[in-house]
Design a protein that fits this description.
The protein is an all-alpha fold and 151 residues long. It has 8 helices and no strands. The chain has helices spanning 5-11, 23-30, 32-41, 44-66, 79-89, 96-112, 117-123, 127-150. The relative contact order is 0.14.
């Protein structure tokens, strides 16, 4: 299905999802830049509002898009990775080392799909599942980062 440009901008995160190789990894990495800019030049509450608005809009465009697909988790949809990375950024200090560490840990959890991420992905073959497994990977990442900071 051909998406209109607004739909596509949201769910492919400015067409990054259209890149053939590792679109989820690229979206996760590139999303750090606008995340840093928003956090650095505004505040946590504005960033939270941006995350909520982007999530809601992307979720509904994802629902619309996957209704027309045979694939219930199309690789071009990378809004879920962006939402997860931005959520992680809410809980860590603004610095490059922390961002890189969070990116690596998040990608590990998102790719490995350890329990219960794998269960969510298998049980929900819809927009909810697309977003929920990445949010769970973000929760694992935040938890591990907090444990690392404790020690």
């Amino acid at each position: 299905m051909k998406m209109n440009k607004v739909d596509e901008i949201f769910i492919t995160f400015f067409f990054i999802g259209r890149i053939k190789k590792i679109p989820g990894t690229l979206a996760s990495l590139i999303s750090l830049v606008p995340g840093w800019i928003i956090l650095n030049y505004t505040n946590t509450y504005i960033f939270l509002l941006v995350i909520i608005v982007y999530t809601v809009i992307s979720y509904f465009y994802t629902v619309k898009y996957i209704k027309t697909q045979n694939d219930k988790d199309p690789k071009e949809i990378v809004a879920d990775e962006v939402v997860a990375m931005w959520t992680i950024l809410l809980f860590i200090p603004i610095n490059i080392q922390q961002y890189i560490l969070c990116f690596i840990i998040f990608r590990f959890f998102d790719i490995s799909k350890i329990y219960p991420i794998n269960t969510i992905e298998k049980k929900y073959k819809n927009a909810f599942g697309i977003f929920a497994d990445d949010i769970m990977a973000a929760i694992y990442t935040i938890t591990l980062i907090k444990i690392i900071h404790t020690f």
